[in-house]
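hey can u check if this looks right to u? its 174 residues, i copy pasted from the old doc so theres a chance i mangled smth
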Amino acid sequence: MTDESPIEITPHTLMPLCSVFRRFLRNHGLKYTVERADVLQAIIDHDGPFEAEELLLDMRNRGHRVSKATIYRTLRLLQEAGIITQALFDSKQAHFQLIYGKQPRDVMVCMRTGRTIDFQSPELVALRDRICLELGWNPVGHRLQVFAMSPEEDGLAGGEQEIDAVSPKENAEG
């Protein structure tokens, strides 16, 4: 079983994170440039999911001269290195989030508004670990996104959801 306690990203853990990225780049014949280091630092400084355009604007507002192409190329490399992951909260825009050294991040996404809430489930972690063990894999993390309609957005009290008893076929005929 894996330890689920989070590793807080601090200056002490930043160095290993940079080392992970440097090693990945070196193994792929690429260099760890100042621009790539700046993108990684901006992601570490960002709290929670972000969009590529948001990261670009944030970096430019901080005085970094960075191109959109550099952002997108570095995001792809960071994904391949296992440092960030792409989180699709809606079909309009991809979001990214730092995953290296973080607890599993499970998210519920309201399909109507895009509002998200984080949740944790020890049962889910146990299920993940059991499945990995059965398949001979070593679990190191996971990500789950549940797409649903929140009761508040439906205007329903107490979390109850109304279910239309008419089947789609009957609806089309009627």
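The domain at 104-154 is CATH 3.30.1490.190 (Dna Ligase; domain 1).
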